Amino acid sequence: MSNAFRELLKKVGSGVHTGEDLSREEAAAATRMMLLQEATPAQIGAFMIAHRIKRPTSQELAGMLDAYEQIGPKLQLEGFGNGQSGIENEEDAATTSLLSQPVTVFGTPYDGRSRTAPVTPLTALILATAGVRVIMHGGDCMPTKYGVPLIEIWQGLGVDFSRVTLSQIEQLFKTTGLGLIYLPQHFPEAQALVPYRDQIGKRPPFATMELIWSPYGGDVHIVAGYVHPPTELRFRETLEMRGVRKFTLVKGLEGSCDLPRDRTAIIAISQPDVSEGFERLLLHPRDYGFAHQEAPLDSTPELIQQMQHVLNGKPTELMSVAIWNGGFYLWRCGVCPDLATGFAKAESFLTEGYALQKLQDIRHGIASLQLAHQP
Q1: A Pfam family matched by this chain, by name (predicted)?
Q2: 338 shares a domain with 304
Q3: Residue 70 backbone phi and psi in degrees, to 5
Q4: Which among 7, 81, 275, 349 is most buried, taking Cβ atoms within 10 Å?
């Protein structure tokens, strides 16, 4: 048993009247001890459920992120060129200028989606096609929702990030502008904590923190979804403590980064020039012709088939969802001057085959990396 961890557990688990919040340093220490299995299973489970009941503060989330940064993987971009764009025309100059922009990191719930069709992988392909560098992260189907995780969607599209090493992911990221950190393969310390989610039957505070975690060792644009409005404030405070200057926080579908179409999209974007440090956008889908009921998630095979139709330029309902999201993020990431231009560009990337070409580039990149490392 770790006596040091026991003292931290006592602080968060002493109840409403005598319990205390951890400092940033204490939260980082507790997280390190859990990741490194210095705390016992009983201590880890007790901490997770106690912290879940107490609710994490912004400084505690910052400390947890400090530990993840210290122990977890961090992709780098040394030697990164401008060959990641799938468009070889006058837009190359714009693509080159994007190399100086932060890397966009999508934070989506690790336990996936179960009701609405996710389009985050399509959004990532659209951005990578335009020269925006994108990182995602997550694991397998996991508690408590057991929804469709990102890794299964990518595998259905012919891209298996689970079969490549961390160094290969980094190389793929450098050459294609897109990568995914897969916990079981690339961050086993965090993966070892996943079973506790099932055992305690609730999402632990890690499930909140990981939405704004960045597995990149440089300047980032954090994109995170959330469900409950107080989470947005915690995210903003935590990111400020950690010096993250660019963020996009979305009250998205099932807590994801995907914009809703059946209600107003509530979005907080960083705005250093205003006193509050952020601006709240209220995007009404009807104003842009995208208002509609949300596309349902019937099954993973059907979702993959619909995505393949979109990438082949077929006018399906999911195409509209992909354009709505892709166009917004093209604007937010600085590719397009306004939303209308973003929607038009997202549509052209899909209907003219550029996003499909990016997907094929990623497939070929993984195949080449695996072939090069065969004995």
Answers
A1: Glycos_trans_3N
A2: yes
A3: -70, -40
A4: 349
| 245 closest CA partner among 103, 149, 43 | 103
Count how many Cα atoms sit within 13 Å of the Cα of residue 28 in the half-sphere of its side chain. 15
Write out pLDDT tens, residues 124-180: 999 999 999 999 999 999 999 999 999 999 999 999 999 999 999 999 999 999 999
What's the CATH number where 37 sits?
A: 1.20.970.10
pLDDT at 84: 46
Distant-in-sequence, close-in-space partners of 15: CB < 8 Å, separation ≥ 6: none
Total number of domains constituting the chain: 2
- DSSP class of residue 20 equals -
Confidence (pLDDT) at 17: 66
Instruction: Say yes or no to pLDDT of 83 above 90.
Output: no
What are 281's strand-pairing partners? 267
- Classify strands 265-270 and 220-225 as parallel, antiparallel or unpaired: unpaired
What is the distance between the alpha carbons of residues 95 and 330, in angstroms, rounded to a whole number? 12
DSSP letters spanning 208-269: HHGGG---BSS-EEEEEE-SSHHHHHHHHHHHHHTT--EEEEE--GGGSSPPPSSSPEEEEE
372: burial class by Cβ within 10 Å (0-12, 13-18, 19+)? Answer: exposed
Check residue 165 and report its DSSP letter: -
Instruction: Give pLDDT, residue 82.
Output: 42
Residue 192: DSSP 8-state: T
Q: Provide the residue type at 346 as one letter.
A: A
In 10 A of CB 343, how many CB atoms?
22
306-to-48, 100, 131 alpha-carbon distances in Å:
38, 34, 25
Q: How confident is the model over 2-30, as pLDDT tens digits? A: 899 999 999 998 877 678 999 999 999 99
User: Is residue 343, in this structure, part of any structural domain at all?
Assistant: yes
Domain with 56 in it: 3-71
